[in-house]
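Assess this:
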Amino acid sequence: MADSKPIRVMVVDDHIMLRRGLAAFLKVFDDLELVGEAGSGEEAVRLVTTLQPDVVLMDLVMGGMDGAAATRAIRQSCPQVQVIALTSFREEMLVQKALQAGAISYLLKMSLPPISQLPSAQRTRGGLLWRPRWPRR
């Protein structure tokens, strides 16, 4: 049975233009609901407990608390919240650090249209199952 509630999404990135672009893009989809934005890892950790998103789209490279540290803190305090890492870099070590911190997947910022696949993500055991593959070089 399909869940009819929209997937609640929070966007975390230190670049306001990227956050605003993602926010506008997410609003196009009936199955996605933007519930909040954060400009830093610290802000994301504070907001996630209040906003209770289903998914956090998390930039990995930010000043202060980076995306991996914020992911770890979010997954510890709210294990039901899934994190998808966002990165501009094809650096596997950076992505592996985020996955080890609890991210379920990652997206390269230059290939953001796959976010449109979020509505078709399968809900399993209270979470989302969605794992794009590492891009070929």
